[in-house]
Amino acid sequence: MSRFSSTAGLTRIELLVLAGVLMVLAAGALGPGWAYFEQSRINRGVESARTLNTLLNQYATDNNGVYPIGESTPDAGKSEGIALNLLQNSYTPDASIFAVGSTVPYRGKASDYSDIAAANISWDFTAGATATTGLTQAAPDLLPTVYGTGETVLYPTTPGTGLDLPLTGHGPFGMKGIVVAYKGNNAVFIQGTPSGTTVECRGFISKDFRVPGPYTQIRP
Q1: Bridge partners of 11?
Q2: Structural contact between residues 48 and 101, judged by C-beta atoms closer than 8 angstroms
Q3: How many domains, in total, are found in the chain?
Q4: Rounded to whole angstroms, how far apart are CA atoms 181 and 204?
Q5: Is residue 43 included in any domain, yes or no?
Q6: Residues 24-53: pLDDT tens digits?
């Protein structure tokens, strides 16, 4: 018997070829599956942003038109403070909406959610002039109110300039893009587009945004 024969009657070369074919077939099967999984994560992120946007507005309606800023929490002016406001005041019982993409979901045990941490938050929020003044219901509909964390947003101060947001890859969807919800309750995933040596989310703030103001980013 040839030294290249296997006990199954196939030569080692034939076995290697067979293994290669199986690997190609497996890759072909996994590709669409992975794309579906990734799209599902993005879709969940968009729905979570839209839900959060609605909750923020409900909170403002009950609190003199002012959005939550984490007031009366250990993390006032931070994203986890806003999450605590919404959870502890029964605007949502679902802490999972604060984690999408690569963010670690909250699995704490505290009945008041006081053990939710920055690591469990996928979102940045927009405030007024400072992180403790609060956005109001008078803000324009094209203003982003909820968006994936990890990037630095420089709100435009000149009407009509808009903002194409550069990506660093630190957000819950990396360089793929960013989920954003606007005050008008439109929530979208903006795909990252290569631009020279950078990747940016074009139209993150529309050039139709005509009412710039002193807005501030609230982060985890």
Answers
A1: 5
A2: no
A3: 1
A4: 10
A5: yes
A6: 776 665 556 667 778 998 999 999 999 999
